[in-house]
Amino acid sequence: MSKKRWQYLVSAIIMTSFLLAACGGGAAEPVVDTAAQDRIAALEAELADAQSSGGLSDEAIAGLESELSELNDNIGDLQSELSTSRSAECSYNAYRMGWVMDWADAGNIVDTVFGPNSDFQYTFWQHNYPELVEQFEALTESAYRNTDLESRAATWQEAEKIVVEDVVAVIPIQHYDRTTLVSTDVEFIFAPFGAPRLAQWSFNTGATTFRTAVGAAIPTLDIQRSTDTTSSFMIYQLIDAPYKFNADGTISPLAATSFDVSDDGTVFTIHLREDAMWSDGVPVTAQHFVDGISRLLSPDLANDYAYVMFDIVGAADYNSGDTDVLEAVVALDDFTLQVTLTDALSYFDSILAFSTFHPVRLDVIGLHGDAWTQPGNFVSNGAYVLVERNPGSNLVFEKNPLYWDAANVQIERIEVSIIQEPATALAAFENGELDYNAAGMPSEDIPRLVGTDEFIVTPRPGVYYMGLNTSARHTDNISFRRALASAIDKRSIIDNVSQTPWKLDATGIIPPEIFGFQGDAVGYVFDLDAAMGYLNEYMNAEGIEDAGSITIELWYNKGGTNQEILEAVEAMWESNLGIDVRTVNVEWATYLATLEECNVIGGGGF
Amino acid sequence: MFTFIVNRLVRSIIVIFLISVVTFTFMQLVPGGPFGSDAGGRPRAPEIQRRLEAEYGLDRPPVEQYITYMTKLVFQFDFGPSLRQIDFTVNQLLFGYDFWDDPLNTPVMISAQLGLLSFFIAVGVGIPLGVVSALYRNKLPDHAAMLVTTLGISIPNFVLGLLMILLFSLTLHWLPVYGWGDSWKQMVMPVITLGTGGMAFIARLTRASVLETLGQDYIRTARAKGLKERFVLARHALPNSLIPVITVLGPLLAAWLTGTFFVELIFAIPGIGKFFITAVTDRDYSLIMGTILIYSSVLVIANLVVDILYGVLDPRIRY
Question: ipTM above 0.90?
Answer without folding.
Answer: no
